[in-house]
């Protein structure tokens, strides 16, 4: 790629909707003077508002480009520059002052030695993990150049015997060869030639490649897990799966083959349709109408629709322009976060409940799990199971505006529910008579 054609930074540069610190939340943070990515990204990219940023994320900007890769990576790094101790931005510093990186994790900055010293009791608890975060956010760039995700092997075990990552990894016979080919690729060389930090050891890079691969596959394997847990049989009939609350993170750069691991999980299946539905779905190859009837056998058909799910249901499902789902999955719906989110999600949650649709949601941690369960119970949803996800992403996610918060992992926990809570469980037991 010619240096004058280097595009705007990929989604890894922007706060991910599928990460703890979403882009929308990031821009809300400007109102509360929390620095983080939201405030700096506009300054560094000369964008005036959230709408202009959204256009860039969706690949619609004009004139936003970089002279070379070094400049691109420099600006990416600058978006992480604020003092972890006092939240000072570079423009707040006095003359001659600069933000200096923690030399251990290369991921957080301080404006003075005093700030670093005062912050160390908190930072030392996460410093080692944040070092991995710093490596991953650079290596993730290879996702946009085609090096990742790498190809996977056919399954040599029955799906019922693949219960965790170790089971899946045991079937990847030439994993080391595939990782080494990425390590020695020209794109990997370009990456470390242009970033302002030394190249990590190959062992660290191999582990980073695997963590990023795991995040990509985590969604697919979680869907496969839900199919099994609900007792759905992809060999008996075609399955329609709706991924709701989908955002630019799932759909920007999405390919028609992204869920093909389901072909290896269920070889010889009758056909699987995956429909991404969400208000932040991005145009791309999968932006095409959903199927009205059965899809192709032994293949996964992907499509996307930009809308709220309950509106999609009214406009397409009820009019039989789209097939009714056998399963609904939501990755990090986040309706526990504030009243506005639960109000936005309420019509969808009630729809899922009242139509008795098998549903699985994933969350980031036990805190989110607890409050999401509480909301669902208040809605009298019949919760069948919840807990740790065996196919959680292995890539740590940093809370952007608060780096010393313990990193979390995408889809680390799940909630599985279907229909309305049986009346005898939803009512309080009668008081004892005396």
Structural commentary:
With 434 residues, the chain is α/β, with parallel strands linked by helices. It has a domain at 214-425: Vaccinia Virus protein VP39 (Rossmann fold, 3-Layer(aba) Sandwich), CATH 3.40.50.150. Helix content is 37%, strand content 12%. The protein is built from 16 helices and eleven strands. A seven-stranded mixed β-sheet has the order 5-4-3-6-7-11-8, with helices on both faces. Strand 6 (327-331), helix 14 and strand 7 form a beta-alpha-beta unit. Helix 4 packs across helix 9 (186-194) and helix 6 crosses helix 10. It is globular. The model is unreliable at 1-42 and 430-434 (pLDDT under 50).
Short description:
The chain is of the alpha/beta class.
Q: What's the structural blueprint in terms of helices and strands?
A:
Blueprint lengths: L22 H6 L7 H10 L4 H8 L11 H10 L21 E2 L7 E2 L2 H11 L3 H13 L25 H5 L5 H9 L2 H9 L7 H28 L9 E6 L3 H4 L9 H5 L6 E7 L21 E7 L2 H9 L9 E5 L7 H16 L4 E5 L2 H13 L2 E8 L7 E2 L10 E2 L3 E8 L2 H4 L8
Parallel strand pairs: 3-4, 3-6, 4-5, 6-7
Antiparallel strand pairs: 1-2, 7-11, 8-11, 9-10
**Secondary-structure element sequence?**
HHHHEEHHHHHHEHHEEHEHEHEEEEH
CATH architecture label name of the domain at 214-425: 3-Layer(aba) Sandwich
How does the major sheet shape up? 7 strands, mixed
| Strand arrangement in the largest pleated sheet | 5-4-3-6-7-11-8
GO molecular function: zinc ion binding
InterPro entries: Mito_gene_expr_regulator, Mss51-like_C, Znf_MYND
Keywords: Metal-binding, Zinc, Zinc-finger
Protein name: MYND-type domain-containing protein
């Amino acid at each position: 790629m010619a240096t004058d054609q280097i595009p705007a930074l990929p989604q890894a540069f922007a706060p991910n909707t599928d990460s703890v610190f979403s882009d929308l939340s990031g821009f809300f943070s400007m109102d509360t003077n929390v620095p983080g990515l939201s405030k700096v990204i506009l300054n560094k990219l000369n964008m005036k508002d959230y709408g202009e940023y959204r256009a860039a994320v969706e690949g619609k900007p004009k004139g936003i480009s970089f002279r070379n890769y070094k400049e691109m990576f420099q600006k990416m790094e600058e978006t992480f520059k604020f003092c972890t101790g006092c939240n000072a931005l570079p423009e707040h510093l006095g003359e001659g002052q600069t933000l200096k990186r923690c030399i251990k994790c290369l991921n957080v900055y301080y404006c003075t030695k005093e700030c670093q010293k005062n912050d160390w009791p908190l930072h030392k608890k996460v410093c080692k993990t944040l070092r991995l975060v710093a490596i991953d956010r650079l290596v993730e760039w290879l996702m946009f150049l085609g090096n990742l995700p790498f190809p996977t092997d056919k399954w040599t075990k029955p799906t019922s015997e693949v219960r965790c990552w170790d089971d899946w990894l045991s079937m990847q016979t030439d994993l080391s060869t595939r990782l080494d080919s990425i390590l020695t690729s020209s794109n990997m060389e370009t990456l470390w030639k242009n970033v302002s930090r030394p190249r990590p050891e190959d062992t660290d890079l191999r582990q980073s490649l695997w963590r990023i691969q795991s995040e990509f596959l985590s969604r697919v394997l979680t869907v496969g897990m839900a199919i099994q847990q609900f007792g759905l049989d992809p060999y008996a009939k075609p399955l329609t799966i709706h991924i709701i609350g989908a955002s630019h993170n799932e759909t920007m750069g999405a390919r028609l083959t992204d869920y093909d691991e389901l072909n290896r999980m269920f070889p010889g299946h009758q056909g699987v349709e995956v429909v991404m539905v969400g208000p932040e779905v991005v145009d791309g190859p999968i932006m095409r109408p959903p199927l009205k009837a059965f899809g192709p056998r032994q293949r996964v058909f992907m499509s996307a629709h930009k809308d709220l799910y309950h509106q999609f249901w009214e406009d397409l499902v009820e009019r039989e322009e789209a097939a009714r789902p056998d399963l609904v999955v939501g990755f990090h719906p986040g309706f526990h976060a504030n009243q506005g989110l639960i109000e936005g999600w309420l019509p969808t949650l009630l729809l899922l409940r009242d139509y008795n649709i098998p549903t699985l949601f994933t969350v980031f941690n036990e805190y989110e799990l607890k409050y999401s369960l509480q909301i669902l119970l208040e809605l009298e949803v019949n919760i069948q199971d919840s807990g740790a996800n065996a196919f959680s992403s292995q890539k740590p996610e940093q809370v952007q505006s608060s780096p010393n918060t313990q990193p979390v992992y995408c889809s680390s926990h799940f909630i599985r529910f279907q229909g309305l809570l049986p009346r005898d469980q939803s009512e309080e037991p009668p008081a004892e008579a005396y």
